[in-house]
């Protein structure tokens, strides 16, 4: 693949609800531009962008794929993203690499939650956006209704540039309102014609607001508009380009990937009206400082590139996808990673097209390129010149919201599971693996149950290990509520050398999490050299509480008395004596403590009542509600951990996927008696089974 100049590149991220036609559109563009010679199909599992075995099996995208479409001396880097919310991390990285967001929605379903989210991602990055209304040939398709809804939701800057030609409910082609042409489609072949007479009035009616928008981009054009003069084609292109770049125009296109209708026009207009990477300055800071640097997205500039995605290929190993933000990246360069401050040597640079790779010796500013086998570089790292180290703006990945425990199906697979999961987490910053030392479980966290399911499937396919997923154990703790004086005596005097240790200990609720140990021994009833053994014995004991075996916390112990034997006493004997005293804590009103999470839930206003009702049902306490942007509310609450396992899934179904939340451990609190009884009973059962 040859290198295109920065101004001849367009980076287009395809966004939208699941099944809106993103992957098929990428395929149609590749097919029309002769980038592939067979038009793959989702159902046959042979599209360019859904090449991962998991995608083929599930028939939807789970990764971001890149399809460079070479069209009329331009390169459109099409970034195909997943529509399902569990894979939001992939959407975020793709959006970071694009200057244009093309939001897909079907003519039948119109705006869906995925459409709203797509808008949100594009808005967050402040990039140009347009809509593409797909599947106009389906029953109940209604393009104009979709346009109306888009205007209502996203404002009057939403302007249709195309509309479908329908005859007797059948889709026949497309009218290009701006260029006043009709594209009639039959048997996947497009014929360019003058607009049929019966569509002229409609075209003019829809063209008026577009011309008005052109006029608004420049004073001179505005004057011309008021004089009633027509714009030249150049003026129209200039005005629209300006408006699209400045987010004052959001065009709506229409077409069918299956019928190859409206796709070539769409590609033409992405080239003629939408910004190249050269249109946006690149903002960075000098590595390790706050000093702002503004770079030109040009190849003459100093090099800076962001690793926006990492993949692990079975043959090549680790592949880092880099958006070259400024300057040029060449295969003979050594660059610096500003996070590690280590250098990385480029060797094998290549462009990717789905799973295919095509070697290149360089990539210009604005382009997307891949490099294999970087030593210690991960997603979100900036690579730049050693002489001018920079940090580019990072991708703000969503936090995991659901955790499950992983158990090996076959004994002895633990190591393989650990290393496989850790490699998978290199590819996916929204997925985490950690060992919980308290519950001794390996926990994996992700954005939803489907996300975790994909990860365990990959673990099996790539690393050959099968796992079972279970609910994570709750790290309960125990404490006591009453002060109690106890005694422990260990005495064995059968034959030879005996054992003797004897302590009296006062236990009481402590202020600190950890054990506080004091001694008030008078007259050497417990000799000084054995006192540390008493403390040590207690420290070994508190790992397991007396009620259900959870760690004992907030305990204060004071050694007040005891006795010893000249010959038979030993450290061991005193340790045992202290553990005997500890066991009597069952009479000190032991209670179970449960973790309480502090939660922040973001939801649209309309769901407020439901969400609050639900949190109450989960034994939660609402601490506050704060209006946030765009009709959202932030609900702050404290909820016991035990009630929050499947919250990610439940919140999604309560809000059709619009809600999101974060939570973190706040503190431990006494658990209500009836619930504590159940936990104690369960731990007894487990103890008996073992
Ligand atoms: N009728 C029709 N079906 C389409 C079109 N584009 C995609 N599809 C079908 O819609 C389904 C979802 O398409 P896909 O490209 O996977 O959507 P994505 O989830 O947005 O990537 C698949 O069954 C496609 O075959 C289209 O233009 N017309
Ligand atoms: Mg897809």
Entry summary:
By secondary structure, the protein is α+β, with helices and mostly antiparallel strands.
Structural class: alpha+beta
CATH architecture of the largest domain: 3-Layer(aba) Sandwich
Ligand inventory: guanosine-5'-diphosphate, magnesium ion
Shape: elongated
User: Could you give a short account of the major beta sheet?
Assistant: 8 strands, antiparallel
The CATH class label of the largest domain is Alpha Beta
> How far is it from the N-terminal to the C-terminal residue, by CA?
63 Å
Number of strands: 37
Number of structural units classed as domains: 5
CATH topology of the largest domain: Rossmann fold
The CATH fourth-level homologous superfamily of the largest domain: P-loop containing nucleotide triphosphate hydrolases
* Strands in their spatial order, largest beta sheet: 18-17-23-14-15-22-19-20
Q: Report Rg.
A: 33 Å
Mean pLDDT: 94
Q: Number of helical runs? A: 16
How would you describe this structure to a colleague?
The chain has five domains: 6-211 and 249-279, Rossmann fold, CATH 3.40.50.300; 282-392, Elongation Factor Tu (Ef-tu), domain 3, CATH 2.40.30; 402-470, Alpha-Beta Plaits; 478-588, Ribosomal Protein S5, domain 2 (2-Layer Sandwich), CATH 3.30.230; 593-675, Alpha-Beta Plaits (2-Layer Sandwich). Strands 18-17-23-14-15-22-19-20 form an eight-stranded antiparallel sheet. Strands 2-3-1-4-5-11-6 form a seven-stranded mixed sheet, sandwiched between helices. Strands 29, 34, 35, 36 and 37 form a five-stranded antiparallel sheet that branches. A hairpin with a 2-residue loop joins strand 9 (181-186) and strand 10 (189-193). The longest helix has 17 residues, at 673-689. Helix content is 27%, strand content 33%. By secondary structure, it is of the alpha+beta class. The model has no long low-confidence stretch (mean pLDDT 94). The structure holds guanosine-5'-diphosphate and magnesium ion.
């Amino acid at each position: 693949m040859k290198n295109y100049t920065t101004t001849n590149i367009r980076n287009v991220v395809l966004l939208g609800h699941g099944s809106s036609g993103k992957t098929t559109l990428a395929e149609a563009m590749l097919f029309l531009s002769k980038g592939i010679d067979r038009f793959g199909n989702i159902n046959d599992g042979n599209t360019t962008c859904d090449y991962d075995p998991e995608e083929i099996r599930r028939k939807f995208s789970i990764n971001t794929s890149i399809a460079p479409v070479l069209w009329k001396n331009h390169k459109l880097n099409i970034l195909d993203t997943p529509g399902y919310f569990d894979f939001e991390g992939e959407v975020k990285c793709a959006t970071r690499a694009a200057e244009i967001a093309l939001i897909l929605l079907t003519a039948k379903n119109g705006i869906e939650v995925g459409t709203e989210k797509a808008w949100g991602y594009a808005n967050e990055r402040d990039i140009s956006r347009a809509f593409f209304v797909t599947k106009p040939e389906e029953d109940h398709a209604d393009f104009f209704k979709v346009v109306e809804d888009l205007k209502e939701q996203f404002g009057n800057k939403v302007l249709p540039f195309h509309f479908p030609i329908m005859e007797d409910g059948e889709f026949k082609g497309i009218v290009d309102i701006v260029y006043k042409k009709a594209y009639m489609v039959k048997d996947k072949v497009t014929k360019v014609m003058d607009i049929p007479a019966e569509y002229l009035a409609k075209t003019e009616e829809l063209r008026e607001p577009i011309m008005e928008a052109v006029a608004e981009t420049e004073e001179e054009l505005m004057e011309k508009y008021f004089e009633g003069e027509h714009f030249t084609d150049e003026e129209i292109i200039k005005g629209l380009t300006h408006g699209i770049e400045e987010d004052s125009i959001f065009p709506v296109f229409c077409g069918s990937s299956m019928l190859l209708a409206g796709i070539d026009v769409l590609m033409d207009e992405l080239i003629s009206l939408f910004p190249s990477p050269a249109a946006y300055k690149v903002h960075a800071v000098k590595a390790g400082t706050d000093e702002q640097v503004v770079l030109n997205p040009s190849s003459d500039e100093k090099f800076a590139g962001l690793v926006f995605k990492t993949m692990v290929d079975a043959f090549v190993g680790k592949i880092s996808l880099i958006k070259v933000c400024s300057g040029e990246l060449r295969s003979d360069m050594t660059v610096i990673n500003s996070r590690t401050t280590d250098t990385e040597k480029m060797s094998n640079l290549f462009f990717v097209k789905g799973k295919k790779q095509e070697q290149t010796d360089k990539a210009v500013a604005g382009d997307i390129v891949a490099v294999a086998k970087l030593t210690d570089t991960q997603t979100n790292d900036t690579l730049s010149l050693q002489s001018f180290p920079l940090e580019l703006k990072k991708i703000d990945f969503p936090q995991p919201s659901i955790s499950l425990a992983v158990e090996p199906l076959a004994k002895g697979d633990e190591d393989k599971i650990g290393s496989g999961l850790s490699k998978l987490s290199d590819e996916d910053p929204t997925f985490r693996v950690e060992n919980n030392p308290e519950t001794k479980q390996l926990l994996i966290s992700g954005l939803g149950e489907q996300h975790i399911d994909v990860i365990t499937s990959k673990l099996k396919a790539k690393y050959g290990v099968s796992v079972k997923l279970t609910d994570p154990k709750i790290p309960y703790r125990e404490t006591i509520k009453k002060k109690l004086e106890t005694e422990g005596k260990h005495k064995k005097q059968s034959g030879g050398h005996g054992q003797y240790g004897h302590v009296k200990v006062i236990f009481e609720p402590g202020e600190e999490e950890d054990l506080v140990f004091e001694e008030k021994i008078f007259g050497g009833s417990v000799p000084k050299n054995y006192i540390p053994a008493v403390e040590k014995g207690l420290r070994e004991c508190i790992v397991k509480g007396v009620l259900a075996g959870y760690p004992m916390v907030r305990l204060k112990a004071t050694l007040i008395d005891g006795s010893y034997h000249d010959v038979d006493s030993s450290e061991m004997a005193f340790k045992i004596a202290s553990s005997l005293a500890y066991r009597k804590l069952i009479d000190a009103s032991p209670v179970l403590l449960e973790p309480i999470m502090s939660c922040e839930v973001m939801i649209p206003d309309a769901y407020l009542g439901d969400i609050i009702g639900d949190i109450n049902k989960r034994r939660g306490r609402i601490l506050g509600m704060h209006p946030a942007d765009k009709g959202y509310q932030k609900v702050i609450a404290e909820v016991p951990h035990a009630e929050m396992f499947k919250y990610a899934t439940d919140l999604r179904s309560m809000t059709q996927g619009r809600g999101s939340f974060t939570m973190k451990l706040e503190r431990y609190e006494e658990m209500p008696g009836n619930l504590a009884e159940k936990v104690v009973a369960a731990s007894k059962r487990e103890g008996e089974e073992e």
